[in-house]
Design a protein that fits this description.
Elements lengths: L1 H27 L8 H23 L6 H18 L4 H24 L6 H22 L11 H19 L4 H24 L6 H22 L8
Helix pairs in contact: 3-4, 3-5, 3-6, 4-5, 4-7, 6-7, 6-8, 7-8
C-alpha cells in the first residue's frame, strides 16, 4: 500500500511539472503570424517620415535664377506699358527698383569671382518677390494710361509702345527705361497742366511745343535701343 501511494505521488508531481513547463513555453513564445508591436510601430514611423519628406520636397520648388526672374519681370512690365495698365510714372518707379536689383546683383558677383552665394540668391529672390507684387498691384489699380483720340495722344501712345518694345526685347535696360519714362511723365504732366489752363484744350502753340519735346524723346528712345547697353540674361 505504501509503495502504491508513493507511485501515485510521483505521478502527480511529474504531471504538475509538465503543466508548468508547457505554460511557461507558451507565455515566452509569441503566436506565429502575429507581428511584434514594436516592429509595426517602427515600420509605420518610417513610412510617415518618408511621406513627410516627400511632401516637404514637393512644397518647396527650386527658385529660378536671378537672371530668369529679371527677364520675366521685365516682360511683365513691358506688357503693362503696352496695354496701358502701367502709366509712365508707375513704369519709372518699377524700373528704378529693377535697376537697383540689377546693380546689387553685379556687386554681389564682383565680390565672389562672378558667382552668387546661396545667401545672395535668397536676398535677390526676396527683392524680386516684392517687386513682382508691386508690378501686379500697379497693373490692377485704377491708374491707367489715357491718350485720347487726337494727335498729341497718338504721339504719346506710339512713344509708349516703342518703349515697351525696347523693354521686352532687352534693347533698353531697366535704368534706361526708367529715365525715358521719367521724361515721358514730365511731358504728360505738362499736357495735363496746359489742358487744365484752357478748358481741356490745347492751343496751337502748346501742341507745337509738346510735339517738339516728343521729337527729342523719340530720338533718345532710338539711341537707347541701339546703343551697346542691353539687358543681360
Amino acid at each position: 500500500m505504501e509503495t502504491l501511494k508513493g507511485l501515485r505521488i510521483l505521478t502527480l508531481a511529474a504531471a504538475a511539472f509538465a503543466f508548468v513547463a508547457t505554460a511557461s513555453a507558451q507565455t515566452s513564445t509569441p503566436t506565429t503570424g502575429t507581428p511584434s508591436t514594436t516592429t509595426s510601430t517602427s515600420t509605420t514611423g518610417t513610412a510617415q517620415a518618408s511621406k513627410a519628406s516627400t511632401t516637404a520636397s514637393q512644397a518647396a520648388p527650386k527658385q529660378a535664377p536671378p537672371g530668369t526672374r529679371r527677364n520675366n519681370q521685365q516682360q511683365r512690365i513691358a506688357n503693362g506699358v503696352s496695354s496701358g495698365q502701367l502709366t509712365a510714372g508707375e513704369t519709372q518707379h518699377l524700373e528704378n527698383r529693377e535697376a537697383a536689383i540689377s546693380k546689387e546683383t553685379k556687386q554681389m558677383r564682383a565680390q565672389d569671382d562672378g558667382h552668387l552665394t546661396a545667401a545672395d540668391k535668397a536676398k535677390l529672390n526676396n527683392q524680386y518677390n516684392n517687386t513682382s507684387k508691386q508690378v501686379y498691384d500697379d497693373k490692377h489699380n485704377a491708374n491707367t494710361a489715357h491718350y485720347g483720340n487726337n494727335e498729341v495722344g497718338q504721339r504719346r501712345q506710339n512713344q509708349q509702345q516703342r518703349i515697351a518694345n525696347g523693354i521686352s526685347s532687352g534693347q533698353m535696360t531697366a535704368k534706361e527705361a526708367a529715365k525715358t519714362e521719367g521724361q515721358e511723365r514730365q511731358i504728360n504732366k505738362q499736357v495735363a497742366a496746359d489742358r487744365a489752363a484752357n478748358g481741356g484744350k490745347l492751343t496751337p502753340g502748346e501742341k507745337q511745343q509738346i510735339n517738339k519735346e516728343q521729337n527729342k524723346e523719340s530720338q533718345k528712345i532710338y539711341d537707347k535701343k541701339h546703343n551697346a547697353a542691353t539687358r543681360k540674361p
